[in-house]
Design brief:
This is Meiotic double-stranded break formation protein 1. This protein is 70% helix and 1% strand. By secondary structure, it is mainly α. Among the domains are: 1-117, no CATH class; 866-1071; 1076-1249, no CATH class. The strands form two sheets. The protein has a two-stranded parallel ribbon with strand order 1-2. The protein is elongated and about 180 Å long.
């Protein structure tokens, strides 16, 4: 079957009657078995059917495609045969009217000529075409020839030039064809023209032809085109023509003339290009619409300003906007291009085309963003940005807030695009969108704007944080990546700056302040205030970190200009936060950053805009910082005006690096006015930077420079503005090293400058080093120390109140400022005198701080001996305050002063002789107490402590003198009587409890001293004995210290047998007559004694060490008192079984638990009164045995003394049975008596317990 099929094919392809004569070399060696000689004879043969000829051509075409080289060799064997074959094909083309055969002929001819690559063959074909066209009486049959020429030039572009040069006569035939009433011919003519004009050289040669003949004809022909093929070829020719500015000008001029002619009476039939293209744009064919848009773009590319008005007047933009609703991406992209170019013409906006079309643009943008065509996204965003940027302010683009919101959401979506190029275009469009006239349609969509800005900043932050792999990128690519990031960041910052500008502009628009459609009862949302605070927050959290990260890689002046202008505008946008924001910026080294930018880019006249922005930013920030200073006074309005003028003139002139600025400051040569202003500005900048811990200048170099600066001022006789002098003092103090010191000349100059200042508060900045600076130099301290310390305490915020009453073992860490002051006080105690002067010369608050700090210092620095230094000052101050307060001493700083006085006394652990100064102080304090009422707790408590100390921490002779002075103050005695009476009315613990403790202790001390020294009594005081005994016999939760103080008083009375000349123990109201057996114990009764013993036992079992000592001591005195009057009763009381239970209650489970002083004293008491029922002889022996085995060196002195007394008591009672135990214990006690008490220094006797000065020995012994 295959063989039969092959034979049939050969029968068709070969002309059998002549084939046998043909040389085999003309036969194609592969299938199809085609003989070129047969084809040459078969194709022109009239007797061969057209179908067979078409088949032969089709096989030849297939052979050319499949076996191009073999066919080419076959045809090229003989040049004459080749040309003959081409002529046969061309003849067939011209004579056959079958369109399919024609197309095959054209295709074979084109392929053959292309494969042969022989110039002679091409010339042959061109000549044949030329002859054919010239020989035609009409253009009726010219379509095939014209199509062949067009495709030939399309295949071999170089033929265009040759065709024009060598066959120029063809142009006339083309013109004939263009007007021939056959659109197929016309389409072929346009196709050929298009190919000819695609060659620049041919186009230039044909320019005259076009101007004179083709141009007038072409537009009208194109307007009348009906078939799609003709329309497309017309548009194709137009596209080629529009590549050249010359032809564009010709066409547009012709169009202008046509439009003018239509407006007046003119020749019919003339048309304009805009109207022709408008017609195609209005067609429903997408291809024609796209081609029309391309042609419009091609015209506008040459000169939008020149050619756009013609299209705008033809209402082209309106129809372009309408077609944006198309689903064709190609058409939308083409329209975007047209509109972008039209937007360069102001007429486009003034005729409100953008107002008409903006909704279509936004919707198109929203739709295109859902597609994957990033080029479409970019082009749409570019158009939107152009419209937003160029829209005149007086013509509102968005007529409703809803439309504005749609635009904002579209931009937000575009900004968030993962494609960087799309996001970059979106950011630019968003930047243009943030304009007042675009946002003024009420209500302003602040929430939408905020969302848009958040999206922009988030996208930028995400991009800026993407890590750069420098190793894989290489140096050049890495630089490009950084540059790309910088551009994106710049665009984002420009958008943010526009938002800031928008907020500033809306501040003057009442309607833009808040949403007018919010219900009256609803919370105000979407307001300008909220938006402004968002801008500040976003800048702080996003903009600043992004810029700082980028600065680590590159610095771009344009970017920094925009960034600093944003910071500057935020001062205006959020005025209530500008001072806080300025402080944060200063603390983040923005003064340094701005100065470095000026030094790097703004020297001379370069980057003047950046210099202006930097200067404006620094100016505002400095004024904000100076008007809200930290640790110094605020400037007056007059001073602010002066500083403002100084900064305005000086800041733009500063463009030097920090070392150069420091060198400029130290210049000792004559300094002119403008240079001096620059120096002032530099100092203010350094000062504000240092205040906020940005020390970017070498401190040692600045210290030297400042000295030169001050000496230069002195040499020129100039006076510093207070602000500048403040900066100089602060910087010198901060930069001065511990080991370096100022020259005397500089110190003298500073002193002269300070003497010229009306008040030091004008130049003072609160800092420990500034204080140290003034106190370091005697010349400054003697003259200004008092005022400087006053200012220091005025500004100091650290408080010592929370440090009070803290045990010395657990002192909390001091604040740095107080630690620095304490260090100064330790190194120069004479400063304490100035501090004491401040107590009575400063305001109450300041004086209070001084006293609190002095008290804390004395508590923490017990090794510093200051008593003699400040005691005289105490007396002077106390006298001054007493005179000042007169009969009403309460209030003011007197309580703190007295507290400090008592503290100074308590610091003395050893007994001291009271000199005349101390006696005067004692007298003054006692007088002060006499003027007080029991309610003046804050004055009386430290005063009583001081008096109590004076009676107990001195020598015996001084105690007697002190008691005599105090007893002479009758008002004090009367006060004590009132205080003691209050004990019975106070319930439990009260604010006066500590004061009552001191009153009882002081009364007991007075009574003891008066009794022992037989001192004169000027005033007696009465105490109700029944109330006293009741308080001890039936205690109602009174504080242990108060009970111990009352016990001390009762013990003193018992020791004196109730015979004190000072204290009178009186009965409480009407009392029943005492029983006869009670007379012997008067003023006590038997029942009172028994009740008191029980009360003492109850107090002892509380196991409070101090209270237990007092109870035991009082029990000893009570039994002694009773025994002297009724031995049987004393023995009865001492032998009560309850005493044994009390003894064992006090003992715990620990080994040797009885070796405590209070227990040993109790056992001694029971042994003395031979209470064997309480403590048996065996038990006494056991105690002695255990004591003999114990390491007595570990016991306290008090316990050793109590053990010794117990041993002696047992010995005196004849209860020692075990002689070995007796000898061992006696040896140990003798050793202790010789060495132990001296080896172990006694513990501090005078303590402050709960604010009460207490002598432990006074309570115990």
């Amino acid at each position: 079957a295959a063989a039969v099929s092959g034979r049939d094919e050969e029968a068709v392809l070969l002309l059998e009657r002549v084939h046998y004569r043909h040389d085999p070399r003309w036969l194609l060696p592969v299938s199809p078995r085609l003989c070129l000689a047969c084809a040459l004879e078969l194709l022109p043969e009239r007797g061969v059917s057209l179908v067979r000829k078409k088949y032969v051509l089709s096989c030849f075409r297939d052979a050319l495609v499949r076996h191009a080289s073999l066919v080419t060799q076959l045809v090229a064997q003989d040049q004459r045969v080749c040309i003959h074959f081409i002529n046969i094909l061309f003849g067939l083309l011209c004579n056959v009217e079958d369109g399919n055969v024609t197309d095959l002929c054209i295709e074979v001819l084109i392929q053959l000529v292309t494969q042969l690559k022989q110039e002679q063959t091409v010339h042959c074909l061109l000549d044949a075409c030329h002859r054919e066209l010239c020989s035609m009486p009409s253009m009726r049959g010219s379509q095939a020839t014209l199509t062949l020429l067009g495709k030939l030039v399309d295949t071999i572009p170089a033929l265009a030039d040759k065709l024009v040069m060598e066959h120029g006569g063809l142009m006339e035939h083309l013109l004939r064809g263009l007007v021939y009433p056959n659109e197929g011919v016309q389409a072929s003519v346009c196709y050929l023209y298009g190919k000819l004009y695609s060659s620049p050289m041919a186009a230039e040669m044909l320019s005259g032809h076009f101007r004179e003949k083709l141009c007038p004809l072409f537009l009208s022909t194109m307007e009348g085109a009906q078939t799609k093929e003709f329309q497309i070829n017309c548009l194709g020719l137009l596209r080629q023509l529009l590549k050249y500015d010359l032809f564009v000008s010709m066409i547009m001029n012709k169009s202008a003339l046509a439009e003018t002619a239509q407006s007046v009476e003119g020749p019919p039939g003339e048309t304009s290009l805009p109207l022709v293209l408008k017609k195609f744009l209005l067609s429903r064919d997408e291809t024609l619409q796209v081609a029309s848009a391309h042609c419009i773009t091609a015209v506008l590319v040459h000169s939008p300003v020149k050619h756009a008005p013609a299209f705008i007047h033809a209402d082209i933009p309106e129809f372009l906007f309408e077609h944006l609703s198309s689903s064709s991406e190609v058409l939308i992209w083409s329209i975007y291009n047209c509109l972008i170019l039209l937007a360069e013409e102001p007429l486009f906006f003034s005729k409100c085309h953008t107002v008409y079309g903006i909704e279509a643009v936004v919707r198109s943008l929203q739709g295109s963003l859902k597609l994957a065509n990033t080029e479409l996204h970019k082009q749409g965003l570019l158009l939107f940005a152009e419209i937003l940027t160029r829209q005149p302010e007086e013509i509102r683009l968005f007529t409703s807030s809803a439309m504005c919101g749609d635009a904002s959401r579209a931009l937000q979506e575009a900004v968030s695009s993962p494609v960087l190029e799309v996001a970059a275009e979106a950011v630019k469009a968003a930047s243009a969108f943030l304009r007042k006239d675009h946002q003024s349609a009420p209500p302003v969509q602040y929430r939408a704007l905020r969302a848009l800005l958040e999206a922009m900043l988030s996208r930028c932050s995400e991009f800026s944080q993407t890590p750069l792999n420098r190793r894989s990128l290489g140096s050049r690519d890495s630089e490009k990546a950084i540059l790309r990031r910088g551009k994106f960041l710049l665009s984002t910052l420009e958008g943010f700056r526009n938002a800031c500008r928008l907020a500033v502009e809306f501040q003057g628009e009442p309607i833009a302040q808040e949403n007018p459609f919010t219900a009256p009862s609803a919370e105000k949302e979407d307001t300008l205030e909220d938006f402004s605070e968002f801008l500040l927050s976003a800048c702080d959290s996003l903009c600043i970190p992004m810029v700082m990260r980028h600065l680590e890689q590159a610095t771009h002046p344009a970017l920094m200009e925009v960034f600093l202008s944003i910071l500057h505008s935020l001062f205006i946008i959020v005025p209530h936060m500008k001072k806080k924001f300025s402080k944060k910026l200063a603390a983040s080294s923005f003064i340094r950053l701005t100065l470095e930018l000026k030094a790097r880019f703004c020297s001379g006249s370069s980057h003047s805009a950046l210099n202006q922005v930097c200067s404006s930013f620094l100016y505002c920030m400095c004024l904000n910082l100076l008007s809200a200073p930290e640790k110094t006074r605020s400037l007056s309005q007059e001073e602010l005006s002066a500083v403002s003028e100084l900064l305005q003139h000086g800041l733009p002139q500063i463009s030097s690096r920090s070392p150069e600025s420091v060198a400029f400051l130290s210049d000792r040569q004559y300094v002119e006015g403008t240079a001096r202003q620059r120096q002032y500005c530099i100092l203010i900048l350094f000062y504000l930077a240092y205040i906020h811990e940005d020390r970017f200048v070498s401190e040692a170099e600045l210290f030297v420079a400042l000295q030169g600066f001050l000496l230069s001022l002195q040499d020129q006789g100039e006076h510093l503005p207070p602000v500048v002098f403040r900066a100089s003092i602060y910087l010198i103090a901060i930069c001065q090293d511990k080991d370096s010191a100022l020259d005397e000349a500089v110190v003298s100059a500073i002193r002269k400058f300070l003497e010229g200042i009306s008040d030091l508060h004008l130049v003072y900045t609160h800092h420990p080093l500034v204080l140290r600076f003034f106190l370091l130099y005697p010349e400054l301290m003697s003259r200004f120390g008092h005022r400087i310390l006053e200012l220091w305490f005025f500004w100091e915020e650290s408080s010592c109140e929370e440090l009070d009453d803290v045990p010395s073992a657990g002192l909390p860490t001091l604040p740095a400022s107080l630690a620095a002051l304490f260090q100064m006080l330790r190194s120069s105690p004479s400063i304490l005198l100035i501090l004491l002067d401040l107590v009575y010369s400063s305001p109450v608050d300041t004086a209070r701080k001084v006293l609190m700090i002095l008290r804390t210092f004395l508590r923490r620095n017990e090794d510093v001996q200051v008593d003699g230094l400040i005691r005289g000052h105490f007396l002077l101050i106390l006298q001054h305050l007493l005179v000042e307060h007169g009969a009403s001493p309460s209030g003011g700083n007197l309580p703190l002063l007295l507290s400090l006085l008592s503290l100074v006394q308590l610091r003395n652990k050893s007994e001291q002789e009271l000199d005349s100064m101390a006696m005067k102080l004692l007298h003054q304090v006692s007088k002060l107490c006499g003027k007080c009422s029991p309610n003046d707790v804050d004055i009386l408590q430290p005063s009583f402590n001081f008096l109590y100390w004076s009676l107990h921490q001195t020598t015996l002779s001084s105690q007697k003198r002190a008691a005599a002075v105090l007893l002479s103050t009758t008002a004090l005695i009367e006060l004590l009587e009132k205080m003691l009476a209050l004990t019975w009315t106070e319930m439990g613990s009260s604010p006066r409890t500590a004061l009552l403790c001191s009153a009882w202790l002081l009364t007991a001390s007075f009574s003891a001293q008066q009794h022992s020294g037989s001192l004169q009594v000027h005033q007696t005081l009465s105490v109700e004995l029944d109330q006293l005994l009741k308080a001890l016999s039936f205690p109602k939760k009174k504080p242990a210290l108060l009970s111990a103080a009352i016990l001390r008083f009762l013990r003193t009375a018992l020791q004196q047998n109730f015979s004190s000349a000072l204290v009178a123990l009186v009965p409480s109201g009407s009392q029943p007559l005492p029983a006869p057996e009670d007379n012997i114990l008067a003023p006590l009764g038997t029942s009172q004694v028994l009740a008191l013993v029980i009360g003492l036992q109850n107090l002892i079992v509380q196991k409070d060490p101090l209270l237990s000592q007092g109870c035991v001591g009082c029990l000893e005195a009570l039994l002694d008192y009773v025994y002297a009057r009724s031995p049987d009763l004393a023995l009865h009381v001492a032998s009560q079984p309850w005493n044994r239970f009390l003894l064992f209650t006090l003992l715990d489970a620990g080994e040797n638990s009885f070796l405590r002083s209070e227990i040993l004293r109790l056992m001694t008491l029971f042994v003395r009164y031979n209470s064997s029922s309480v403590l048996s002889h065996e038990e006494v022996g056991h105690v002695l045995q255990v004591a003999a085995l114990a390491d007595l060196s570990t016991l306290s002195n008090t316990t050793c003394r109590a053990l010794r007394d117990f041993f002696l008591q047992v010995q005196s009672m004849g209860l020692l049975i075990d002689h070995s135990t007796t000898q061992t214990l006696q040896a140990s006690l003798e050793g202790l008596s010789l060495s132990a008490f001296s080896d172990h220094p006694p513990p501090q006797d005078m303590l402050c317990l709960g604010g009460v000065a207490v002598s432990i020995s006074h309570i115990r012994d």
